[in-house]
Amino acid sequence: IQEPEEKKIALELLETEQAYVNRLHLLDQVFYKELMKEAKTGKAVPEEVVKMIFSNISSIYQFHAEFFLPELRKRMEDWNRNPRIGDVIQKLAPFLKMYGEYVKNFEKAVELITAWSEKSPPFQELIADIQKRKVCANLTLQHHMLEPVQRIPRYELLLKDYVRKLPPQSPDRGDAEKALEMIFMVAKHSNAAIAEMERLQNLWVVYQRLGLEDDIVDPSNELIKEGPIQKISTRNNSTSEKYLFLFNNMLLYCVPKVIQVGAEFQVHLRMDVEGMKVRELKDIEFPHTFLVSGKQRTLELQARSGEEMNAWIK
Question: Which residues does the UniProt record annotate as the domain DH (predicted)?
């Protein structure tokens, strides 16, 4: 007899969950535990750093190992009498919010592993030693750490498939659809957290290139476009190399520094976007030029190509 499609997917969910719990066990009970022991007894790495690397992996591991996996297993053993998993997944969904913290921390964790591997040979040796074990399957710590980041999208895909394959009159239909909606919300939340983290990270890099001028650093700003530009001087008919950063609320008109200590650019002028006007100039001598006029002053700028000029104007 062919197994019904929805049961195959539910079994796949159970199998992948078992493999996932093994991976979480490796992260929490092997890597985290042994690095923590080393941090407490040796001088290889501070305890704080180990905690920062692994974030809240212990809570995630316990939740899956002690709650979700056993519940799922119970359901599958009882499938023929009571074919449903939707209610269990509904219980899972609110706890997936724990992933927000782990996902937000992921990039920093990977940076810390790299930095401390360079700084502390014993730290690197311990990680290399664990990675050599059979349980690691020739994969790095960073690779294993990516698993929780990818798990929520995996639930979403499996559950979508499960709902699609359910017969219309299945007793699990209502619960499974509700569970899918809940997982979808969590996934959206987690993606938004990643996007926000990346935005802040990129913004911070830009501020560093500008020398962290106090009145410019604002976490709510959004960088829209940046790039080199030629400034036209009408006085002596020449151009000079400048650099623009366009944010949602201001345009920074900068000069590249010759000697780069710390900052790459010096801000020459800051123009408010509010009340700013931009238009193309049809100049025979200087093609691809446009005029930016704001409260502070007016700039005649030349782009490298027509496309680039249009991109700036837009």
Answer: 5-193
Are the CB atoms for 269 and 253 separated by under 8 Å?
Answer: yes
Q: Is residue 215 part of a domain?
A: no
* pLDDT tens, N- to C-terminus, the chain (314 residues): 678 899 999 999 999 999 999 999 999 999 999 999 999 998 889 999 999 999 999 999 999 999 999 999 999 999 999 999 999 999 888 888 888 889 888 888 998 999 999 999 999 999 999 999 999 998 999 999 999 988 988 999 999 999 999 998 899 999 999 999 999 888 887 777 777 777 777 777 777 787 766 566 676 778 888 888 888 887 777 788 888 888 888 888 888 877 666 678 888 788 888 888 888 888 777 888 888 888 878 888 888 888 888 888 88
Question: Does any domain span residue 203?
Answer: yes
Domain harbouring 151, CATH code: 1.20.900.10
The Cα 128–Cα 117 span in angstroms is: 10
160 lies in the same domain as 282: no
Expressed as residue numbers, the domain containing 73 is 5-210
Whole-number Cα distances in Å, 295 to 218, 248, 270, 272: 21, 16, 10, 7
In a domain, 218, yes or no: no
Distance CA 126, CA 42 (A): 12
Number of domains in the chain: 2
